[in-house]
User: Fold Sulfite oxidase from Thermus brockianus.
Amino acid sequence: MERIPPGQIVTERFPILTYGEEPEVAPGEWRFSLSGLVEVPLTLTYQDLLALPQVEVVRDFHCVTRWSRLDVAWKGVRVRDLLEKARPKPEAVAALVHSYGGYTTNLLLEDLLREDVLLAHTLFGKPLPPERGGPVRLLVPHLYAWKSAKWVRGITLLDHLELGFWERMGYHWRGDPWREERFQEGPIPAASLRFRSKKT
Ligand SMILES: Nc1nc2c(c(=O)[nH]1)N[C@H]1C(S)=C(S)[C@@H](COP(=O)(O)O)O[C@H]1N2
Ligand SMILES: [Mo]
Assistant:
């Protein structure tokens, strides 16, 4: 398989892309909540996050503006582990991710369940810098980088698709770089959610 998704250009740089102002979030103030269609809503502090099982992943990072940065090293906690504790209700199929500062992005529950989707607090062996979304950001390496919400503060599970910030502006509802899902062309197929639901 090709290493670089279609239409992407590899950069040695690692640009910082933030829409609007960078929120200030001290590790001691950071809270994360998993809410919505779950049996057991949960809230974590930074200390709680560090006390959970940690995983390290090295992944390529693809921005929809066409740059790709290879081999980015992250460390954090699998979102899947948190979802196992929270126990999604059968009707949960989608999620809206919320960040400090007001940024949002939508994901399918099945995309959150991938084993390399993390709440990341460490980048190249150092605490995630503020401009990279520190203290904690979401990492969703198999989708365009706008899904990797910086300064993440919550994930809400839903039984329907609720679009996030860029998705409402016309970016693709899912954002798979291998299929060049950059912009939404035409209506979002209603079936794309229903067929993905585990419960029929
Ligand atoms: N909260 C928040 N998260 C965000 C963004 C943002 O503007 N605000 N930009 C997204 C986009 S478009 C990209 S390409 C990546 C960039 O991450 P980086 O700044 O660490 O390179 O963050 C994503 N996450
Ligand atoms: Mo981006």
In short: Residues 14-19, 63, 99, 101, 103, 132, 145-146, 148-151 surround MTE (ligand 1) (CB under 6 Å). The domain at 27-196 is CATH 3.90.420.10 (Sulfite Oxidase; Chain A, domain 2).
